[in-house]
Write a structure and sequence with these properties.
The structure is a single chain. By secondary structure, the chain is mainly α. It contains two helices and no strands. The longest helix has 26 residues.
Length: 72
Amino acid sequence: MGAWNKKQPTKGQALFMGVIALLLATNIVVAVLVEGRPATVLFWIVLAMDLILVAMSLWLYRRAVKRPPTRG
């Protein structure tokens, strides 16, 4: 048995990263909009980075579907 090729993500890893990123985005939106917390620049920077994480997880999932990881 060989080890998994670590350069290629699995679908599960991509989905997990996407779910965590969406939970973080939900937390930020609730803090800013519902609780009346002042929308500081830091919140918007974190939200922008979080949206990048969501896009990256979608890209990784698409890549994992096209070429599943193989045993090396």
